Amino acid sequence: MYTVLPLTAALVGIVSAAPAGSKRDFSPDNVYYPLSNGFPNPNPAAVQKIQMDADGPLSNAPPPDKGPSADGITSLKLVAFNELFEVAYFNELIYNVTEKVPGYDLGYGHEYVIDALRAITAQEQLHALNANGGLKRAKVDQIEPCKYSFPVTDFQSAISLAATFTDIVLGTLQDVIQVFAKNGDDGLARGTASSLGNEGEQEGFFRLVQKKRPSAKPFLTAGVRDFAFTAVQGFTIPGSCPNIDTIPLKTFKPLTVESKDIKAETQALHFSFAKEHAGTEDWASLSVVFINGQTVPIVKSLDKVKVEGDTVHFEAGFPFDEFVMNGLTIAAVTKGSGPFPNAPAVAKEAIFGPGLIEIE
User: Fold this and answer.
1) What is the C-alpha to C-alpha distance for residues 202 and 215, in angstroms, rounded to an integer?
2) Residues in the chain, pLDDT under 70
3) Measuring CA to CA, which residue among 166, 157, 154 is closest to residue 223?
4) How many domains does the chain have?
5) Cα→Cα distances 137→75, 99, 177, 186, 302, Å
6) Tell me, what's the pLDDT at 107?
7) Which DSSP string corresponds to 106-141?
8) Is the backbone of residue 133 left (phi > 0), alpha (psi -120 to 50) or beta?
9) Taking the CB of residue 170, how many other CB atoms lie within 10 A of it?
10) Which helix (H) or strand (E) holds 200?
11) Which of 187, 213, 246 delimits the end of a domain?
12) Is 330 a member of any domain?
């Protein structure tokens, strides 16, 4: 089984999960907030109800002795930005399944799926409240929600997409914890690792629903905050995010994975990007880099380059068999060929990305 999702700005403007009539009922003009419980600013009674639905409360442990570093604040902002997107996504999915809109009538297992999704949505609300609460304690403006658009049309495509962005989260939280460690924000590491485990449990559910093994790899693919920041923006309506400019992370130019029906085998994959954003026409000076698992990033040349108007088409060798590249692979086009010892080094030199490839 496979999924290929470029998750770039090209997704903006595509209709959301529900048909037009249902979408207007649920989220007029792509506005998802506030929810009926007041989220993202629920009152104490609403928070108590969210905690009951989530099967657990926010931590009541005292905050760290010292406030987060500047880089720690950036990580909290990214987490809040992502969680607000996820809550909107899962709330629309619950609506579609509950109302049994075309493509979302599951028949057998319907109530179990709704129950699971409601718990997941409540858990994501707590993740968002936790991140924004950390910003509030640091006397920093909390991240506000955007308008969103989701490029799915039925339950299976919605679950497939949920699995992919959860894979991104699982990699990104690795990076967040690493950044906490580097900057002395150890007081934030344990809670973040706890939420990472929760996201892994959610991913197991998404994979089972797709009839996949519940675990994809022994060591999940490493992520980088900048790649996640770019990916989530693929679901936002441009200009609709009130304070996204306060998140000091990079936004890459779109990299499109043109190959479809990707099999679990070594092969050449097809990609494209906009020529105007490359900053060069010396295609040999660019590289395609694949990030998969915890191996050193794999660097490949751009092969069979063909320019059509403003679009650059090319191939790159995908060495599946050599590196057993199951699960999520993050592709990027970089300046130069490295070497890149890790995912952050790739992000530092990346121009285009992330191209997201899921292989089972």
Assistant:
1) 11
2) 1-26
3) 166
4) 2
5) 15, 39, 19, 16, 47
6) 85
7) --TTHHHHHHHHHHHHHHHHHHHHHHHHHHHHTT-P
8) alpha
9) 22
10) helix 189-209
11) 246
12) yes
**End-of-domain residue from the set 216, 246, 276:** 246
The type of residue at 69 is S
317 and 272: one domain? yes
From CA 57, how far away is CA 126, in angstroms rounded? 8
Rg (the chain; Cα; Å): 20
- Type of residue numbered 242: P
For the whole model, what pTM was predicted?
0.92
Let me know: does 125 contact 87? Beta carbons within 8 Å. Answer: yes
What confidence score (pLDDT) does residue 2 get? 36
Read off the tokens for 168.
């991104």
286, 335 Cβ separation under 8 angstroms: yes
Q: Note the pLDDT of residue 21.
A: 35
User: Containing domain of residue 269, as a range?
Assistant: 256-359
Count of all residues that appear for the chain in the document: 360
DSSP at 234: T
CA dist 255 and 267 (Å) reads: 19
Q: What confidence score (pLDDT) does residue 26 get?
A: 67
Q: What is the CATH number of the domain that holds 301?
A: 2.60.40.10
Whether 276 contacts 360, CB under 8 Å: no
Residue 298 CA to residue 338 CA, distance in Å, equals 10
Residues 269 and 182 in one domain: no
Q: With residue 232 as reference, give the H or E element that holds it.
A: helix 225-233
Helices 110-137 and 189-209: crossing angle, nearest 10°?
A: 160
Report cis status (omega within 30 of 0) of the bond before 354.
Answer: yes
User: 10 Å Cβ neighbour count for 27?
Assistant: 22
In Å, how far from its chain's centre is CA 186? Answer: 24
The two tokens of residue 141 are 């403006």
The answer to whether residues 262 and 186 belong to one domain is no
DSSP letter at 108 equals: T
